Amino acid sequence: MLAAERRDHLLGLLAREGKIVAKDVAVELGISEDSVRRDLRDLATEGLCHRVYGGALPVSPAVADYTARQAVTPDGKRKVAAAAAALVRPGSALILDGGTTALAVARALPPDLACTVITHSPTIAAALLDHPQAELFLLGGRVFKHSAVTCGAAAVEAAQNVSADLCLLGVTGVHPEAGLTTGDVEEAAMKRALAARAADTYVLASSEKIGAASRFRVLPWEEISGLITDADPHHPVVEQLAARGVAVLTAY
Fold first, then answer.
1. What is the pLDDT of residues 101-112, one digit of tens each?
2. CA-to-CA distance for 152 and 8, rounded, in angstroms?
3. C-alpha to C-alpha distance for 109 and 114, rounded to whole angstroms
């Protein structure tokens, strides 16, 4: 099999199965595992897969920069945002993560809702300036421009001094094996710090993130209260997560 044919085979396998196991492909094609690994390295360099131990997983489109991400599945993000906003009760305190789906949540909150919103995202804070009943707390630190949020030691320390009823957290990948992931190590640490300060944490995951993975794990499944997604309830990944006890809220 030519290199181009192997490439097409690997991409097709990734699309169908949601993962590639290098040793299985090697047996199937009658080639060495080293050859499969070289092909996967080439695909990863082109941004077409995310390499993991023993193979590869689908790469998340949500690792693009903030501006580009705003054009990715906007309808799905609005559905997820509407379902998430419905969880915010009057008088409660909300930790709202950064990112384009979290921004959609901010826009979905009723303008007259009396609540406290704690965020490390300047764009989230700006979006809530015209909500007269919402108290805003902006956590400072080094600005990570890729996602328009603050990260680093100062931001994590600031997060440790707040508490909330609910945390709405964004990720770039939701995969049964890789877990909840994102593309930057400091951003992952900041997300963990935010989730640790809330009684309940729900993950915001529009459909393009389901079955995808990024490099850094955010949280184990047992540390979240649920997943909010617009993905089909019969999506294989959604069914796997539900079977392992993850509460899945479907956003219509």
1. 999 999 999 999
2. 40
3. 10
